[in-house]
Amino acid sequence: MSQGDQQYSMATLEKHTSPQSPVEEDAPGVLSSASSTTPVHQPLHTSDPKRSATVPPSLRESFPQFFVLPHLLSKSAWILLFATTVVMVVYTWLYLGALWSPMTRVKNVEIMLYNADNGFDYSQTPVALTQLFQTITHDKSLGSLVRHQIMDPESPLNHVVSWVDVSHQPGWDRDSLIDQVVKGNYWGALYLPANFSNNMLSYAPTSTAVPTVASIKPIAMEYIFDQGRSYATHSIIEKYISKSMDALSKGVERQLLTSPVNLTLLNTMHPLLWIQAIHLSETIMNPVLVYGQNFASYVVFIVLYIGSMLAVFSICKYLPTTVETFGILTLPNETKPTAKRLPKFPALRIVLARFGVATLFSLVHTLFIWMVPQVLHGHQMSEHFSAGYAFAFIWFVGLSFTSIIFLLSQLLTVDGFQGPATMLMILMFTSSGGILDWVVMPGFFRVGVAFPFTYGVKGLRSIYFGSRRDEMWLNWIVVLGWIVVPALITMALARSEIRLRRQTMRRTASIQPEV
Fold first, then answer.
1. Whole-prediction pTM value?
2. 3-state DSSP helix/strand/coil percent for the chain, to nearest 5?
3. Could you tell me which residues come within 8 angstroms of residue 36 by beta carbon, excluding any fewer than 6 positions away?
4. What is the spatial distance between Cα 155 and Cα 93, in angstroms, rounded to a whole number?
5. Which pLDDT does position 262 carry in this prediction?
6. Relative to the CA of 324, which of 250, 309, 357, 445 has its CA 20 to 30 Å away?
């Protein structure tokens, strides 16, 4: 066909094309597949002036293999961005929220105040000086004056901590204060001894002698606290108590020096009185002698929890899972199992076997974790417990972590439990009282009372330092609950899942493939 004939044929086709035919408007002369199955090439040049100019392809169209990013920024990417951001915010909030401004909550700390001062004994004091002291003190004991300044609602000292005055309650003495502190009922106790007033008179001359450095006795209050309970928390509280008592001492000095008889006092009393009138002595129960061992009381369980995560992941992911198929299917032309063929294992026994392997992992992990504080120089161990007891308790807490993580892996699959398990670890750690006690933390973090991490920290501090050892039984009971309950739930779910998989395998094997 000549060129003229071809042009004529194309023109005829275009002329006789009906309006209802699905012809592409942007591609004149191209018929749809409904009109013809023969491909028709689009002319290189059209009469449309808008299409006459050749549009250069974009860089993205020319080199599509270099532009991977637009394909990755899909809806799933934005969902992952949101999820990871939420995780980071939660992590940051838990850490910083737990440790943010604990000084503003020192007022929540309860400190007992007991005034055992017997008052002034003026039998060896000159009459003129006796009258002077009675005028200044309003014929009250020095302990009563101090107690009044502390308990006065208008006094700044009253708003430092929450003071619990037991001075007028029967049955109290220094030993009972110590007992209450050791049991953890109160954070500390301020004790004003029986000779508190008379020690002040030791700075004054007697009828037969003048005061000397050897004869004077310090006017000392005693602050009793359990350091092993929470080293960091007590460091904060101790600072506030020391500052408060220092302010109290300066207030007594100011009151004496501004009295009408100040010149008489300056000429009569020993000069050391004006250096610091009242001292604060400390009695530390269950002291933390090794600074790092305070961190060991909770770092041990962080590492053990991570080890439990690794153990559960390894057992569920990499150890043979074909054990579930043993004895399930019968091979073709096989009427009975051969001698070499393994028997079918009950589903519950398979689950117990995996727990047994995890228990072995936890035992080895505990051995090396427990060993580190034991071999470091100057490590502590309370006289009430032994190193073997410490090992048994750490392992016991580790089993509770393993039980929890097995349950999470069963509920969220082995590939999906790591993120939630890590977030749970952060929540348990920050709410355990490991770094700071709940008393100086926001109220939300008291949720830690439900988790085994809290009781692990409390128990290990009892073992290392002897703090709150009367509550050791409670630590064992709570941790045991976190071992048994998640384990029973996991066994029930895993047993059912294994049985379901076996049924699926039998059903699949019974279907004959089509030829």
1. 0.79
2. 60, 5, 35
3. none
4. 36
5. 80
6. 309
